[in-house]
Amino acid sequence: MKDAKPLPLLGLVLMLLCGCQEVPQEPEQPPKPSFVVELSDVDFLEKTRKGVVLLVAYAVGCGPCHAMEPHLEKVAETLQDKVMVARINGMANREFTGLFRVNAFPTLFVLIDGKTTETVLGYHTEEQLLKLVEESINTTEPGPVTPPSQE
Predict the structure, then answer these.
(1) Which structural domains are found in the chain, ordered by start?
(2) What is the pTM of this model?
C-alpha cells in the first residue's frame, strides 16, 4: 500500500465538526532599526575619526561574531548618544584588516578620536562590551588617528 497523504479538505471538515478554529497568526512585526553602523574600506577612517567608536571586525561565517550581534545592538542602543557602535566585514574589507592587522574574528577595537585605545579578541557579552568602552573612555586621552601600535 502506498503512503496515504491526508487530504487538506478532510482536515478542514474535521476542524468544522469539532468546533476547532485555526490559530490566529500574529501580525508580522517590522524589523527593528539597527543601531550598529556598517563600515567598509571606503569610509572606516572617516567615520571613526571623531568621537568614541566600538568597532568590531567580523566574518560572515563566524559563529562567535553572529552570537555577539544581539549584544552589539543592545550596547549601540544603550550608548547611542555617546558611542558609535560599528562593524566591518573583515573578509570583504582587506584594506582595513591589513592596516589593523586583524588575524582572527571577532576582533574588537575601541577608538577615541581615531586613536585605537583597546584591541581585544573573541566573543563578549553586553556587560563586557559596556565595561570595555567605559574603561577605555575613563583611562585614555584622545589623540591622532592611528592603527594599532606596531609591536
Answers:
(1) 33-139 (3.40.30.10)
(2) 0.73
